[in-house]
Amino acid sequence: MATTRRQFMKSSSAMLGAAGLGTMPTQLLYGDSGSTPPPCTLVALYLRGGADPLNIIVPYREKRYYDVRPTIAIPPERRGDTAGVIRLSNDKRFGFHPALRELAVMYESGLVAPIVNVGSTHPTRSHFDAQDFMERAAPGIKTINEGWLNRYLGVTRTDGDSELRAISLQAVLPRSLRGQYPVLAVPEEGANHAMGVFGTLYGCDSEKEAISQMQEPPGSGGGSPSDPEAATRQKIVEAGAHSIRKLRRLNSIIHQGSSSVVYPKSRLASQLRGVARLIQANERLEIAAIDYNGWDHHAYQGGSMGTMAEMLRNLSGSIKAFFDDLGPRRDRVVVLAMTEFGRTVKENGTNGSDHGHGGFLLAIGGPVVGGKVYGKWTGLDRAVLNEGRDMPVYTDFRSAFAETLSGLFGFRADQNEFFPEFKSEAKSLGFIRQMGSA
After folding, report:
1. CA distance 367 to 332
2. Using an 8 Å Cβ cutoff, are 150 and 178 in contact?
């Protein structure tokens, strides 16, 4: 849908309004005594490509799981050099993939809550549509252009918002954070290059200089100060300059200090390390979003070993290092790992799995009521599968999103008609403690 002039002006004003916020000194935000708790933080970790739920939260008691997955199933126990399922102490239906060793330990400590048979009410198997529907929290509705996390930020916006209230430590902003509320997407290792280009283009090294140099002098034909178009241009100039200033500040924070925690050598680990730095710096970070790509395993998916196993090992080790790095701060942080849909129950002819329907969520962190598997489970018989081939959806992902927003931030999505065309009548799963708003 084309953007109208009114919408453009409104969006530009929103960008400018947030760009100047959050400059209050940290000690004034928290108090010198540090008695005011920091806000809770939600890290939305998107596993793009449709991660296979059955090889992550493994139903090793189901005979059909082994019948239809002769090469990619996870053995119920170790067989020679092949690792078996990590069994859960209080759930005899499921185990974890052996590459999720660190997450299994966190599960037993009550810090991990897997949710099975989660997904969209829309039947699409298209990556693009499914990702759009999930990240905008509007299955089947293509007129919604803002992400669910951006909408939350906009609805709850205050004059005291930190300018680093929400970030994405990657060059492309995830769909969930796109919208009118301005969120900084950080170009990772390219941040210094981007700031250098900014200085070269405008011959300056500060926000004030940039704004001054980009303003058109009187009589240049740029319009009078009362000209709406000139005012709009000025707002965009200021918003851009503010973004560069925030980028410089953010870059400084995530590269300062050190930690005794050893992270895996991966892009995901580096992104999570940056999020940890921001939380530790008392920047009142509330929302962070990270993409982990590559989960579309149509061929040579592997079982206990292989492509998916290596990705799961990175996922598990990176998340464990992140929470170890946070220390006591983990009590107010949740990582919500999600994917657009699940995979077919039966493996395909190339030792992989195809696009499915019902998926999973992993909620990880101090506020999580972990140590148990959530969601309705009805087995793997063809009669209970979606179209006889996929896991069904018993928990709408919007229910899980709503519970997360309520538990962490005290935001009641149902009372605010937050999710379009969605009314949850089901009892909440109860996987997040009620932390309230800070």
Report:
1. 6
2. yes
Backbone region of residue 414 per phi and psi (left: phi > 0; alpha: psi in -120 to 50; beta: other values): alpha
Write the pLDDT tens digit of every residue in 124-142.
999 999 999 999 999 999 9
Tens-place pLDDT, residues 303-344: 999 999 999 999 999 999 999 999 999 999 999 999 999 999
Half-sphere exposure of 115 (CA within 13 A, CB side): 30
Say if residues 386 and 357 touch (Cβ distance below 8 Å). yes
Identify whether the C-beta of residue 17 lies closer than 8 Å to the C-beta of residue 262. no
The CA-CA-CA angle for residues 195, 221, 232, to 5°, reads 50
What distance in Å separates the CA atoms of residue 57 and residue 99, rounded to the nearest whole number? 12
Tokens coding 335: 């990582």
- Banded model confidence at residue 103, pLDDT cuts 50, 70, 90: very high
At CA 375, angle to CA 374 and CA 376, rounded to 5? 135
State the virtual CA torsion across 234, 150, 146, 315 in degrees, nearest 10.
120
